[in-house]
Design a protein that fits this description.
Blueprint: E1 3-7, E2 20-27, H1 38-46, E3 49-55, E4 62-64, E5 70-72, H2 75-78, H3 85-104, H4 106-110, E6 119-128, H5 130-141, E7 145-151, E8 170-174, H6 180-183, H7 189-205, E9 210-215, H8 226-229, H9 234-255, H10 267-270, E10 273-275
Parallel strand pairs: 2-3, 2-6, 6-7, 7-8, 8-9
Antiparallel strand pairs: 1-3, 4-5, 9-10
Helix pairs in contact: 1-9, 3-5
Length: 285
């Protein structure tokens, strides 16, 4: 049983509640609470989206239910090995099924008191790490997803053997270290090759509009609120860049707003976002 939280925030003016809004589904990284992406979720809400974040009970470090119960991560998952592909893919499958369940019950969610008077038009999805892999798998199975963003996704866990093409527009946003040589110090020997080949296969199978970029100076957890809790002030700047860029992408394909890879940022910020190719190498401009 997973937990769901809906974010509307006070600055989304309720007098406009009769207008249809767009929904962004948010899937966190392994072990990360659904509440640890506030920097981006608040930004999305400021842009008029309703964000439904989907937590993974027993997988997250902790989950808090409406009645106050706290459920911690299971011992099996606390000690999971990076090369235990069977268990990791079971976790991914569970994520996918949970997200599809939420999609199929959005009408019920919107009939509840919290969202009374709201309605939705389109659905987008954002995921980080394991949640990023889930975002792709969901879009592959459900054409109601209009656009997606993958934050430093677990490419080695994706089901790409059938070479299925997917037309959903996707932004792939990665940490600074992307090439094989750079990742030697980041990933274990058992997953680095599947990770590299997974990204290459994904890149080929994305048949719609796609953009692959890396964030200079970012690491894997930069895409969450975690660095803020360790007083990483630089992460605040990275969060602003990540939020601006990814939301601009979603807004083109969900809200129909103008967006291009080259001019989304001014020159100062463009130095922080670098386009990469299928090998994770910087694309020369």
């Amino acid at each position: 049983m997973n937990t769901i939280e809906t974010h509307i925030y006070n600055n989304y003016n309720p007098k406009y509640s009769n207008a249809k809004s767009d929904v962004i589904l948010y899937s966190p990284g392994f072990g990360v609470s659904r509440d640890m992406y506030t920097y981006h979720i608040k930004y999305l809400v400021d842009c008029g989206y309703i964000v439904v974040s989907i937590g993974a009970t027993y997988e997250s470090v902790f989950s808090i239910f409406p009645d106050g119960r706290v459920v911690n991560q299971t011992a099996q998952l606390t000690n999971i090995k990076s090369t235990d592909f069977i268990l990791w893919r079971e976790l991914l499958d569970t994520r996918v099924e949970d997200i599809l369940y939420v999609i199929n019950h959005l009408d019920l969610l919107f009939s509840q008191s919290l969202l009374e008077g709201f309605s939705y038009r389109s659905i987008g999805i954002v995921g980080h790490s394991l949640g990023g892999a889930a975002a792709f798998e969901v879009a592959k199975r459900d054409n109601r997803i209009r656009a997606g963003v993958m934050f430093d996704a677990s490419f080695h866990l994706l089901d790409l053997e059938k070479n299925e093409k997917i037309d959903t527009p996707f932004l792939i946003m990665r940490q600074e270290k992307c090439t094989y040589d750079e990742l030697l110090t980041e990933l274990s020997e058992g997953i680095i090759n599947p990770f590299i080949s997974g990204f290459e296969k994904l890149y080929k199978q994305l048949n719609g509009y796609k953009a692959a970029v890396k964030v200079q100076g970012a690491h894997h957890m930069t895409f969450s609120d975690v660095p803020i809790h360790f007083k990483d002030i630089e992460a605040i700047n990275k969060h602003e860049i990540i939020s601006d860029y990814s939301t601009a992408f979603l807004s083109e394909f969900i809200q129909g707003k103008s967006y291009t890879l080259q001019n989304s940022f001014n020159h100062k910020r463009s130095a922080d976002i670098v386009e990469i190719n299928i090998k994770g190498q910087t694309v020369s401009v």
